[in-house]
DNA sequence: CATGAAATGAGTTGCGTACCTCAAAACACC
DNA sequence: GGTGTTTTGAGGTACGCAACTCATTTCATG
């Protein structure tokens, strides 16, 4: 009836006795320090495994004395997503402080490979762990690998560098996110047929390109009645996005769906609203005529648009979860603890009006 | 550029010096022990606040010595949701063990108020914290309040007892979940009009009743073209659900949407499949004729149904997150740490084929 | 001012680990 | 058998706090 899941109460001393060695030797094995014969190592590890011994994290943490230093390397400039990350770290302040963790924010030009690589190289040795919003480029990859070799724990955030030897990626699968957006647009458009527009920041950004890829995949295979128009590159800028989209909406009156891949949401919404206003004065209206609008991320703006019904769904990747997951993963890596992969996995949230967080 | 979020490195000794008292007094204040004059208490608390001092959790944990005991009180009988909770706790075994946390599972008849209340009363004093899947009933409420008064930390799981003095609720807002289901059915049905069916376990269950309430709310206010049929009570049983639904589908050929509130999914899917087969042989087919099917929870079964396209969306409440959140909340409560409410909040996940976790 | 109660100080011990030093033992090699 | 090297043992200190004891001071009250 009452099954105990974690009964351990052994200490290093018990393991030492079990293995027939001294405490010092167990310590050497536990921390991969040199000066222990291979078969002695095995004896100790066996004893540890046999008793499924877990070092007491509190004791380990206390004994090491020094605080740990982590840093988030993020894009400079006003970026709502990054501001949210910072805000969530602020909410964790007491939690961090109670564990003697120092977390800093470092702003850098993430979109300039050379600058980013240089920034990263400069941090070597200063931190126990880094969470990096990086772009996938050979020089960045090299910088990350150097950090890893120097013993720094490295986690990529939001945008991965899979070719590097980073320890972990905290973020979503962007192809799946694009597929999800495609399925939503297709299903919410319903029986209507027509054209679908895509507004992205730039197709050069890895995450945007992947989302578009996934989106087109679904549209092509499952919604043959909908034809996807060429991607508009709004550069995540409101003005530019609005202008491009307004022109497109004018040219194609039969646009029934819209996927906004990145930022520039304000401009996209403006263009859509203007179109809706025009149609209202000219007679046509109603939900049947409205353009299905799917975008990314829950911000103050997208929240408002969802509530107003302008936007139909937002694909979200919970920045709070990402911030906390990055810290937890770095901490687990630094301590040599296993990572709870299920916990740290970032899910693709579909947010509609009624499940707004 | 590099803003430090958590610089603390003070100790109790520093606080004692700051406040002009001894270590013992600080300790008394920190643990609400008697024997300190009110103004002395204030002086100490001021010093703590002024330096935003946080006791080192590792040191505190180490010093207290005793391991903590938590228990999950859950329904007996074969219940996939509860089995998942148990599985996720198993995945945390190393994490728990490293923190000297003992977590047990206690099965009880959750649907019998008297039995549940008696079980809870019997646990008093044995555990530092309890996570309880409870139903809202006066005797259960009283039992929970007694536990709280005795110093046990109590968290309700999945199903809340808001009238009790439980410390925290780990679960979703079921009315919002119902609303979300309603919005999904309505939007996915598209331009078609017709009838919508609801299959629930029982309207007597608080969570099911709340979901139905939210569902009807949205249907009534936003989808006037859809009329909701009376709720079928399938008692979470496959056979019964299938039988009831098959009869209903036969009687109303114009059913375009279906909301399955609880379990019995296998039966519901069977009834829908049979209907689809009939229509295929008789000519009509295609997505336009299919019944939109929205249900709850991601299990092996619903996952398969989503992939096959039989089911259109599942409202999910991530049992892994719930299990981990319950443990974290109990631990934070026991330690007197603040709870990261943003982190522990259970979100209403919309799961469709392309964002299956 | 005497008395007893309340408030406070001073000190100790122990939690389980990290990290260090120094000496002793085992071993390899010529 | 002697040399030098590697491996191991023994022991200590420190980390920051909880929890306790016991002595001392402060205070209110008669």
Plain-language structure description:
Two copies of one chain form a homodimer. Chain A contains 15 helices and 13 strands. Helix content of chain A is 48%, strand content 17%. The first copy, chain A, has helices at 12-19, 23-30, 38-50, 57-64, 80-91, 93-98, 113-123, 138-149, 174-189, 206-222, 238-251, 265-281, 300-308, 319-335, 341-344; strands spanning 3-4, 68-75, 101-108, 129-132, 153-157, 168-170, 194-200, 226-228, 232-233, 255-260, 292-296, 313-316, 349-351. In chain A, strands 7, 8, 9, 10, 11, 12 and 13 form a seven-stranded mixed sheet that branches. With 357 residues, chain A is α/β, with parallel strands linked by helices. At the A-B interface, β1, α4, α5, α6 and β3 of A face β1, α4, α5, α6 and β3 of B. β1 of chain A pairs antiparallel with β3 (101-108) of chain B, so a sheet runs across the interface. The structure holds a DNA duplex (30 and 30 nucleotides).
């Amino acid at each position: 009836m009452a099954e105990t899941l974690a009964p351990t109460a052994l200490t290093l001393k018990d393991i030492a006795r079990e293995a027939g060695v001294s405490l010092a030797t167990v310590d050497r094995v536990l921390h991969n320090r040199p000066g222990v014969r291979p078969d002695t190592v095995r004896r100790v590890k066996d004893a540890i495994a046999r008793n499924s011994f877990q070092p007491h994290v509190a004791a380990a943490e206390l004994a090491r004395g020094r605080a740990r230093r982590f840093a988030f390397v993020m894009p400079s400039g006003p970026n709502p997503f990054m501001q949210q990350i910072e805000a969530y770290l602020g909410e964790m302040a007491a939690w961090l402080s109670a564990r003697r963790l120092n977390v800093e924010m470092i702003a850098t030009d993430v979109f300039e490979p050379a600058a980013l690589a240089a920034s990263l190289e400069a941090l070597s040795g200063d931190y126990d762990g880094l969470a990096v919003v990086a772009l996938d480029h050979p020089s960045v990859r090299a910088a990350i690998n150097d950090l890893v070799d120097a013993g720094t724990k490295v986690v990529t955030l939001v945008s991965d560098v899979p070719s590097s030897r980073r320890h972990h990626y905290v973020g979503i699968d962007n192809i799946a996110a694009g597929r999800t957006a495609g399925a939503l647009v297709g299903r919410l458009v319903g029986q209507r047929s027509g054209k679908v527009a895509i507004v992205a920041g730039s197709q050069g950004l890895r995450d945007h390109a992947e989302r578009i890829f996934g989106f087109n995949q679904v549209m092509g295979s499952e919604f043959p009645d909908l034809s996807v128009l060429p991607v508009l590159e709004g550069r995540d800028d409101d003005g530019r996005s609005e202008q491009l989209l307004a022109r497109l909406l004018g040219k194609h009156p039969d646009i029934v769906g819209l996927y906004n891949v990145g930022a520039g949401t304000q401009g996209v919404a403006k263009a859509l609203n203007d179109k809706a206003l025009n149609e209202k004065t000219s007679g046509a209206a109603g939900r049947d005529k409205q353009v299905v609008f799917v975008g990314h991320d829950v911000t103050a703006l997208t929240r408002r648009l969802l509530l107003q019904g302008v936007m139909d769904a937002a694909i979200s990747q919970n920045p709070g979860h990402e911030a906390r997951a990055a810290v937890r993963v770095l901490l687990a890596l630094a301590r040599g603890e296993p990572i709870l992969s299920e916990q740290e996995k970032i899910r693709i949230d579909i947010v509609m009006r009624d499940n707004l967080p």
